[in-house]
């Protein structure tokens, strides 16, 4: 059966994201920056926000362990949007084409409930075109837990076998496949465009004469 809807991941699929993007502006020394991101503000620590913990709790705990970095740690919340850059190469056009074709678009994102609203506001032109968004920090569920995919399917009234899910993380792809979604591993716009075209969701480019 031809799929009828698409669910996007956000970070590193639609938007380029890295904690480094913020902190390279604040720590000039490359070795100190690498050490800070390896030992202090790590992806594993930040993952707690996506799972639903408050920044007040996690930052207090981290600052207690690294009091000399307390000011840098505290900057993450007010300057979180600086960890996100422009849309991933080619994705703005691909997203626009799907929307123009009338494909229902949704998102499931591992994102802090506190950090997501200002990020969504900054990129309202994109996010206002989604028919629904599941934010892990709001639900206290996080990919690749199968429960977050089932929640999205139930909430949006979607059939798994007719819904495409796109993510850059292979664990998240496996979680989506476990509930029957058509899961596409994102490694860049060219491959994704080919896959969505083969699935009938994007029009084929006209052949050259």
From TrEMBL:
CDD domains assigned: HAD_sEH-N_like
Entry keyword set: Hydrolase
InterPro entries, alphabetized: HAD-like_sf, HAD-SF_hydro_IA, HAD_sf
A GO MF label: hydrolase activity
Keyword Hydrolase: yes
Origin superkingdom: Bacteria
Record protein name field: Hydrolase
Organism ancestry: Bacteria, Pseudomonadati, Pseudomonadota, Alphaproteobacteria, Sphingomonadales
């Amino acid at each position: 059966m031809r799929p009828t809807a698409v669910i996007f991941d956000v970070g590193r699929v639609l938007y380029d994201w890295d904690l480094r993007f913020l902190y390279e502006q604040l720590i000039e020394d490359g070795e100190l920056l690498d050490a800070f991101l390896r030992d202090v503000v790590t992806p594993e620590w930040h993952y707690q926000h996506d799972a639903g913990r408050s920044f007040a709790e996690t930052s207090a705990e981290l600052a207690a362990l690294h009091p000399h970095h307390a000011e840098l740690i505290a900057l993450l919340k007010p300057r979180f949007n600086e960890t996100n850059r422009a849309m991933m190469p080619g994705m703005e056009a691909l997203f626009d084409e799907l929307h123009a074709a009338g494909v229902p678009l949704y998102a499931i994102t591992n994102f802090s409930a506190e950090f997501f609203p200002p990020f969504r506001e900054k990129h309202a032109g994109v996010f206002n075109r989604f028919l629904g968004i599941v934010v892990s920090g709001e639900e206290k569920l996080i990919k690749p837990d199968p429960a977050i995919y089932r929640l999205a399917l139930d909430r949006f009234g979607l059939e798994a076998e007719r819904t495409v899910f796109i993510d850059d993380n292979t664990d998240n792809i496996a979680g989506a496949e476990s509930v029957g979604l058509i899961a596409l591993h994102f490694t860049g716009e060219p491959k994704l465009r080919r896959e969505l075209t083969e699935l009938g969701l994007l029009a084929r480019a006209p052949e050259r004469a």
